[in-house]
Amino acid sequence: MAEDEADEALVGRVAGGDRRAFGRLMERHMGLAIRVAQKVAGSAADADDIAQEAFLRVWTRAGSFDPARARFTTWLYRIVVNLAIDQRRRPAHAEIDAAGEIAASDPEPLGVLVAREERRAVDTAVAALPARQRAAVVLFHMEGLSGREAAAAMEISEKAFESLLIRGRAAVKAACRAREETVGGARDDR
After folding, report:
1. Residues 6 or more apart whose Cβ sits within 8 Å of residue 94
2. In whole angstroms, what is the distance from residue 139 CA to residue 150 CA?
3. Domain extents for the chain?
4. Is 105 in a helix, a strand, or coil?
5. According to a count of CB atoms within 10 Å of the terminal CB, is the N or C end of the chain lower?
6. Helix H or strand E encompassing 157
7. What is the predicted pLDDT for the residue at 116?
8. Closest CA to 35 of 166, 131, 139
């Protein structure tokens, strides 16, 4: 099997039961599946399970993949996003990640701390979005898909995707602005 064989050709081989082709697809795209699952579901603990379930569906449904309708990655994004949204709807369990981080013994530069806090604020704001807005923001801004690709992955029109993205961005900006005002106000009270 050629290392540079197209994903779509590999899916065709997977539909015929080729385990090596399936393994190659997993090698190429498992990281992407985990990353998207974690960002959309908001849970590192669930991301591996979601990604594995997504690839199980690739294995069992490879015959239904139509390369004329979408690229393999678009199909995979669709599977992962749907599974992550479904997972998010289930009752939540407390994550070990919620315990926080152990502080390093050596002091970090202020810039690194500020950047980390800003990133955490954005991640928190994105995690608080409704599932479909969160998926739109993750696919477009964090995964770098075009509007057309992300809309296809979510199985919605480009106009509907654009609307979700606009609302998601506005909510993230508002949450970050409110946090900044709260943090800034707390600093002023000292």
Report:
1. none
2. 6
3. 1-91, 109-190
4. coil
5. C
6. none
7. 77
8. 139
Over the chain (190 residues), the average pLDDT of each successive run of 10 is 80 94 95 92 87 94 92 94 84 54 56 74 87 91 90 93 93 86 60
Contact residues for 24 (Cβ-Cβ < 8 A; gap 6+) = 1, 5, 10
Vertex 78: Cα angle to 23 and 91 (nearest 5): 100
Identity of residue 102: I
pLDDT of residue 104: 54
- The tokens describing 46, both together, are 């669930």
Radius of gyration for the alpha carbons in the chain, expressed in angstroms and rounded: 19
Position 1 scores a pLDDT of 47
CATH for 109-190, among 1.10.443.10, 3.30.450.40, 1.10.10.10, 3.40.50.720?
A: 1.10.10.10
pLDDT for residue 74 = 93
Residue 69's nearest CA partner among 183, 153, 177 is 153
CB count within 10 Å of CB 155 equals: 12
Cα–Cα distance, 25 to 29 (Å, whole number):
6
Among the four given CATH numbers 1.10.260.40, 2.40.30.170, 1.10.287.370, 1.10.1740.10, the one describing domain 1-91: 1.10.1740.10
pLDDT at site 189: 53
Closest CA to 134 of 31, 33, 37, 29: 37
